[in-house]
Amino acid sequence: MSESEYIFTTTKTTTAIATTTLPPTLDSITSTLSDTFVHYLNYLGKLPGGDYLLWYIKASYKDDPIRSLFELMLFIFGVRYFLMSKRKENKSELVKFSQREIDELIDDWNPTELVEPVNDTEDWQLKSIPQIEGPNGPKVKLMNLTKGENVLNFAINDFLNLSRNETIRHKAKDIISTTGVGACSAPNFYGTQEVHVRLEEDISSFMHTDNSIIYGQDFITSTSVLPAFVKRGDLCVVDSGVNLAIQKALVVSRCDISWYNHNDMNHLESVLKELKPGLDKQKQIQRRFIVTEGIFDNTGELVNLPELVKLKNQYKYRVFLDETNSIGVLGDFGRGVTEHFGIDNKEIEIIVGSMAKSFGSSGGFCTGTKQMIHHQRLSSLAYVFSASLPPYSAKVTSTAIEEILHQKNGKSIIVSQLQHLISYTFKNLLTHLKSSPFIEIVNDSSSPTIHLALKNEYRESIGLPQYYGNVEFVRTGKRAKFNNELDEHYLLENFILQKIIDEVLKSKNILLTRSKALLEHENLPIRRPRLLVLVNIGLTENDVDSLITGFNDIINDICTSIKTPNDLTTLRNEMINY
Fold first, then answer.
1. Percentages helix, strand, coil for the chain, rounded to the nearest 5?
2. What domain of life does the UniProt record list for this protein's source (predicted)?
3. Minimal CB count within 10 Å: which of 10, 18, 71, 555?
């Protein structure tokens, strides 16, 4: 190659300029600028490697020196911009304060509280929380409420006691030793490992569905799944007793909502008759769902699924079913309310549930058709953006399913044990409390969580209201738009239940619990707080007998001391000084 091959000329540029209608002055300026730039650009050929640089510029820019000049200026500007110290920018606008001025500003600063401070009437709730020493299970040691004795634990929702299963514990340990304790990413990135894929397959096989998807937290499962399918303009017909997670899911989805009375199929049918399918603003077909639970978290009642399925088919709706409290509990193998009633899972379009209860693990799941699951992998916010389920939790659930499938006489061994203990506890408690003027059982006999609530007659006699929170819902059927205010009567009724819990713990070394809800988060009204007895197969019939013996006497002693509304004043002082 000779040097002359790399020398730029301005012939092409001049010809190009001549074909335009530029003013004479601008034309001369452009020509002069081009000639000057080409003159100095050719000096690059005298530098080592300059010939190749000239050849590159000539070949890349097609002998257009103006373009080369423009891009050179951009390159210089970019280098200067990124190398320029940021401290020099807007230096004239910086304000310097003396140390005295800084101290005065700090003293005057009054930041807004992130949460409301705990007042005197709420402080007892923190003090009443049990602190367990060591692992949780059917028998525990409490650090703050007892002297360290073993306590029978009727406050754990690990119904099948699988968290204490040695096989599961060893497999969880093996996974932790190889993969650690976290997935460290969202499932669609590198958060999905082999154990996650196997778990989705295990859930699908267990539930007899096409496909499944798992979530890192159980509470966000409903709040991610439901908004992935219903948007503004879609319709959800919802049971008025659904749990808080479903309430929040409905708010996030911004869909239209019609409520029907809790577990009332006659009212559901009347609501469906009144509603007519419509079109949204984009002229798309309105998606319509009936939203309910298998065993209701707020009441322990069992959904009338056969009648609900009949209505959904008649009026062309889909069903969203939360099996959190019924999975691992109902049916011959614990497949939930669908197996309990002998209903094919294909009749239920969306089934969600928690792995933090009967499976003794953590996280949530959704199961159903392949198309429904595939849609979530791209559209469900928690699946796309939240961290994946810890690998050991996935392995725990897969192993838990294996344990549940161990059978005898065509039924799961451990599920049958649980169902027997639930029936035993329910029948004996019902008999023991049948004559109580103060408290009653409000759940169905198949619920592993037995709900005890103060009788309405007694509540009225001491001046407690019928509902707490969004009372307007009872009249208008509309969820709350604003946070509920603190209700002292609600705290007082909870404190009565806490006194029963404390006395049972003190006299029997048995730990019970109660429903815990924050009114400011609830969109639906709370009818009455509940004392909870949670059954798990780590306990025995003798343990149940220990609870029942004298249980009614404790309730009577506490409730008879509170007879009139005036007694609530004394109770309030006791609550403050707890």
1. 50, 15, 40
2. Eukaryota
3. 18
pLDDT tens digits, 344-392: 999 999 999 999 999 999 999 999 999 999 999 999 999 999 999 999 9
Confidence bin at 66 (pLDDT 50/70/90): low
d(CA 498, CA 107): 42
Beta carbons of 139 and 150 less than 8 angstroms apart: yes
Residues 424, 545 contacting (CB under 8 angstroms): no
CB of 196 closer than 8 Å to CB of 187: yes
Q: Please, are residues 295 and 329 in contact by the beta-carbon 8 Å criterion? A: yes
Backbone phi, then psi, for 190, in 5-degree steps? -115, 25
Helix H or strand E segment including 155: none
Q: What is the dihedral of CA 447, 452, 457, 462, to 10 degrees?
A: -150
DSSP state of 286: P
What string of DSSP letters covers 478-507? ---SSPPPP-HHHHHHHHHHHHHHHHHHHH
**How do 318-322 and 350-354 pair as beta strands?**
parallel
Token code pair at residue 320: 């969203």
Distance CA 407, CA 412 (A): 4
- CA 39/CA 60 separation, integer angstroms: 19
Per DSSP, what are the bridge partners of residue 354?
A: 364
Using the CB atoms, write b or e for 321-356: b if 16+ within 10 Å: bbbbbbbbbbbebbbbbbbbbebebebbbbbbbbbb
Return d(Cα 314, Cα 331) in angstroms, integer: 26
pLDDT in tens, 508-554: 999 999 999 888 888 888 889 999 999 999 999 999 999 999 999 99
Nearest CA to 196 among 370, 387, 403, 404? 387
DSSP-derived pairing of the beta strands 235-239 and 288-293: parallel
* CA-wise closest residue to 500 among 412, 407, 438: 438
Encoded amino acid at 9, one letter: T
Domains, the chain, with CATH or none = 3-86 (no CATH), 123-153+411-576 (3.90.1150.10), 163-406 (3.40.640.10)
Q: If you count them, how many residues does the chain have? A: 578
Place of tokens 């699946």: 383
Q: What angle do CA 453, 454, 455 make, to 5 degrees?
A: 110
**CA 198, 203, 209, 214: dihedral to nearest 10 degrees?**
-80
CA–CA separation, 479 and 50 (whole Å):
76
Contact (Cβ atoms closer than 8 angstroms) between residue 388 and residue 183? yes
pLDDT in tens, 219-276: 999 999 999 999 998 999 999 999 999 999 999 999 999 999 999 999 999 999 998 7
Count of alpha carbons within 13 angstroms of residue 42, beta-carbon side: 14
Geometric angle at alpha carbon 334, from 329 and 338, rounded to 5°: 100
The helix/strand/coil state of 288 is: strand
SS3 (DSSP) at 279: strand
C-alpha 267/C-alpha 288 separation (Å) is 17
Phi, psi of 33 (to 5 degrees): -60, -40
